[in-house]
Amino acid sequence: MSQAFPYGVVPKMKPLPQRRAVVVSVLDVGTSKIACLVARLKPVEAGDALPDRSHLVELIGVGHQRSRGVKAGQIVDMEAAEQAIRLAVDAAERMAGVQIESVIVSVSAGRLASETFHAEVPIAGHPVEDRDIRRVLQAGCAHSVRPNRAVVHSIPTGFGLDATRGVRDPRGMVGQHLGVDMHIVTAEGAPLRNLMLCVERCHLNVETIVAAPYASGLAALVDDESEMGVTLVDMGGGTTSVAVFKGGQFVHSDAVALGGHHVTLDLARGLSTSLDEAERLKTLHASVFPALADEREQIAVTPVGENEIDGASYLPKSMIVKIVKPRVEEILELVRDRLKASGYAAEARRVVLTGGACQLTGLPDLARRILDRPVRIGRPLGARGLPEAAKGPAFAGPVGLLVFPQVAGLEHVDPRRMRRGGSAPKDTYIHRVGRWLKESF
């Protein structure tokens, strides 16, 4: 396991080489599916790239399996989860023709939460230099993370000079005080450790961990949305996570431990059928709005322990709607309340739904009514070579993980949290040269 993790921060990946193509592998360990994607990231000319993008994503390998040993995004059976990860990775390796050694992993468990910090340092009227930016970023990270939680992301969302806020790049500007706003995303440490341990038991290194809604936003949002203000709601199997983007920055994250699997459980209990049958009924017939024909249309339901031919009973389709709708309303109302409590409800006036559970018939209309704002379904954008099975909302998160290496350099890591062992780092000339070589190449 990474030595950095005990100090409250997950491993961080190195910046992408600007003039060389690289192969990147990602792993999305969810409650309903485990997906492994392999892509070749090719550098593009600065004028041809989107904002904050430097490479073209070309998918070369996909592998996905039904999830095992995972509940609400957390590992609950190490052996079963390890086996499912190995199968997904093996399928991706065979398709891509490469051997995967390290992966970028998404996380939706661990009660994702956001904190915002502001820090200032004096600059005495001289033009802002790189060392001033390093000083203020260091000050912005000088906060205490709550016990048993780990820092997943540490992102500067804006600089300030004296009374001027929202400065994107203060280099060369003058003022008396340089400030920075830092967005810190944290998660409970134990679920992250177990997730990393499970991946490492598959003989894979964890390059970094990315919050699932942040990854989905990187793939499903267009630039104008993230600039004007948008809320991305990633409806997964075991969790529904939220990411708010404003001014082109990821500014808030939250999660509720309810998702599409809970709808399946409700159907299984309400119709006295198996989970597999409930999942089939949800996929084929579930809706959140009743239709006039639902009372007349009969659906075959196989009770638990019966076979499809002899034991099937027939129920009106309206019964499925009556079971599904209350749970979906509960999830959306929780999202609405969390968004209101965050203080970003007025600034993120659009909503993008993504994740496999957002594909229920009529869900965008229901979300539009409960959240009281425009809603659309978000599908993965910005990647070439996606097969048809990976073009839906369920794959926005994995595709976003492939985009993440291009924006990983925006994050700031407190060097003090990255020390190994309990002693202070050495600062001789040789060690300084060694650190420079590690950071530069």
How would you describe what is shown here?
This protein has 441 residues and is an alpha/beta fold. It has helices spanning 78-96, 130-140, 189-200, 212-220, 223-228, 260-271, 275-285, 317-342, 363-371, 396-403, 429-440; strands at 22-29, 33-43, 55-66, 70-71, 74-75, 102-107, 113-122, 149-161, 164-167, 177-188, 205-211, 230-235, 240-246, 249-256, 298-301, 313-316, 350-354, 375-377, 383-384. The strands form five sheets. Strands 11-6-1-2-3-19 form a six-stranded mixed β-sheet, with helices on both faces. It has a five-stranded mixed β-sheet with strand order 14-13-12-17-18, sandwiched between helices. Strand 12 and strand 13 form a beta hairpin. It is built from eleven helices and 19 strands. Helix content is 31%, strand content 29%. The two termini are 23 Å apart.
Short structural description:
The protein is of the alpha/beta class and 441 residues long. It is 31% helix and 29% strand.
What radius of gyration results from the CA coordinates?
23 Å
Distance between the termini: 23 Å
The total count of strands amounts to 19
Give the low-pLDDT segments: 1-7, 416-427
Fraction of helical residues: 25-40%
What profile does the largest beta sheet have? 6 strands, mixed
Count of helical regions: 11
Taken as a percent bin, the fraction of beta residues is 25-35%
Tell me, briefly, the overall form. globular
- Give the SSE order as H and E letters: EEEEEHEEHEEEHEHHEEEHHEEHEHEEHH
| Average pLDDT score | 86
What structural class should be given to the helix and strand makeup? alpha/beta
| Strands ordered across the widest β-sheet | 11-6-1-2-3-19
Main location: membrane
GO biological process, one term: FtsZ-dependent cytokinesis
Subunit structure: Self-interacts. Interacts with FtsZ.
Subcellular location: Cell membrane
